[in-house]
Amino acid sequence: MPLPLALAVPAAAAGLAYLNAKTAFWYDKTIMRGMVPAMYKTSRSESADRCNHFYRLEEIAKSKSASRVGILFEDRSWTYAQMYEAALKYGNYFKTKFDLKPKDIVAVDLMNSDHFLLIILGLWSVGVRPALINYNLTGDALCHCVTIANSVLLLVDANVESNVDDTVRQKLGDLRIEIFSQDFISAALAVDPVRPPNEVRAGEKARDMAALIYTSGTTGLPKAAIISWAKVTTGGVFVRGWINTKPSDILYTPMPLYHSSALLLGFFHCVDAEATFAVGQKFSTKTFWKDVRKHNATIIQYVGETCRYLLAAKPDIDPTTGENLDKKHNVRIALGNGLRPDVWARFQERFGIEGIAEFYSATEAFGGTWNYSRNDFARGAIGRNGWLYDVFLKRRLAIVERDHETDEPYRDPKTGFCVAVPRGGVGELLYVLPEDTEQSFQGYYNNAKATDSKIIRDVFKKGDKYFRTGDLVSRDPEGRTYFHDRIGDTFRWKSENVATTEVSATIGLHPAVEEANVYGVQLPHHDGRAGCAAIALKSAS
């Protein structure tokens, strides 16, 4: 006999809830909410010859959101209409004063500020590409970054002018060097806001270069990763859909704008959402939460160890009322990458952060993983997915066994192909590259050898190509992806592989430990390396 309606409805609801919990369709929906619009918008922009992101700024500046605040810096604010006008002025100034041509490259050696962003948009308005220099660089590293970009102009922040000393100037030869000072700003903003014709930006493809962003240079000199228009568009559109950013949101970051995290996933994510981007000049535990409250931020951005630094800092106490201000803010999401598992829960609890949007990628990478976590289920993971998205991932990535002697992916002696690790096993993460690799994977500018080094061929069949991340990860049966170590950081001891990050994270769980760094050391008459830990203890106070 049929169930009464009063029983059937709850039973169906319970069944759907169970199915959702088992398949995680709800989470796949959040990923697709970002992925589908990102793919569509990239394709549409190319077909309309509007890949240049200057057009997105123009679109907002001429819409009902023109008066919405787009940038906050210190005590200054810029509406989208004001940003558009300033971008036109900067573009006109650069073109007329320095005789810049479309596709020229300008080395931008600036600290974080509102004008950093306006200059990028201004250069794009006249079809010029920025090469974003780490303003801490000096000497040979600085000269290298400027030179490999074939820069026609170097713009240097007045605050780091001393980095461009006589030796640097001599090595750069006759390259024009301009100091970015208040006089420069005044001169640029005094010109007319002339809109360059579409012809100077015409013919751009999604794969074409929008900017150069440099690797950290931990293994040799920095390499210039090519940032395509597709990355600018998809990065911003995806994150907006993934964490459901609204125009009313305000994202605060003091992370360096010369990196892709702050620029692409921070600023251009806000531009896509028509939201507000609040930028700090640089990170400091003393000013971070003050700036967050000042700008009424609803989203904050972190990179690497910044959350641990904030957790280690003393509480911010109101000098008048004595109130602990740790949770006195409007932040609902912390967005970033590199949040250590041993810090994750403590950071959320102390500062009252509802959600952590942790991602994993690299500037030059051909993919990424995403974990928007609001409970214990995926805490500490760099990515997660349900059954539906898992079908997509199986065609986009692979985790393969590592040869611990060579630090290369292990190849089966019989077949010559790599070996995929079972679910839950640890191996190197690889991303599938399309057949037209030379067109789709830009790699590094003016460095074919470095670009080729990131590609591994004949992985599972003849002719296939994958991007090597150089990172060891695992994926468990419930769709969670975990970072284990960077290849080169792991070491082998008595036939066991030791992941330095896992050991340091475990040591860091002890309440007396402030920070732990684990590494391998060689011992006489022993194979492999023994574990060694450098530990900083918390002060007694």
UniProtKB/TrEMBL annotation:
Keyword Metal-binding (UniProt): no
Membrane topology designation: Multi-pass membrane protein
SUPFAM superfamilies in the cross-refs: Acetyl-CoA synthetase-like (SSF56801)
Domain AMP-dependent synthetase/ligase: 67-384
UniProt entry keywords in alphabetical sequence: ATP-binding, Cell membrane, Ligase, Lipid droplet, Lipid transport, Membrane, Nucleotide-binding, Peroxisome, Transmembrane, Transmembrane helix, Transport
A GO term for molecular function: long-chain fatty acid transmembrane transporter activity
Main localization, broad class: membrane
GO cellular component assignments: cytoplasmic side of plasma membrane; lipid droplet; peroxisomal membrane
Family annotation (Pfam families): AMP-binding
Catalysed reaction, written as an equation: a very long-chain fatty acid + ATP + CoA = a very long-chain fatty acyl-CoA + AMP + diphosphate
GO BP term, example: long-chain fatty acid import into cell
Entry's localization field: Cell membrane; Lipid droplet; Peroxisome membrane
Entry keyword Membrane: yes
Record's function text: Acyl-CoA synthetase required for both the import of long chain fatty acids (LCFAs) (C14-C18) and the activation very long chain fatty acids (VLCFAs) (C20-C26) by esterification of the fatty acids into metabolically active CoA-thioesters for subsequent degradation or incorporation into phospholipids. The transport and fatty acyl-CoA synthetase activities are genetically separable and are thus independent activities. Esterifies VLCFAs in the peroxisome matrix. The VLCFAs are actively transported into peroxisomes by a PXA1-PXA2 heterodimeric transporter in the peroxisomal membrane.
Family named by the database record: Belongs to the ATP-dependent AMP-binding enzyme family.
The protein's name in its UniProt record: Very long-chain fatty acid transport protein
Organism from which the protein derives: Xylaria bambusicola
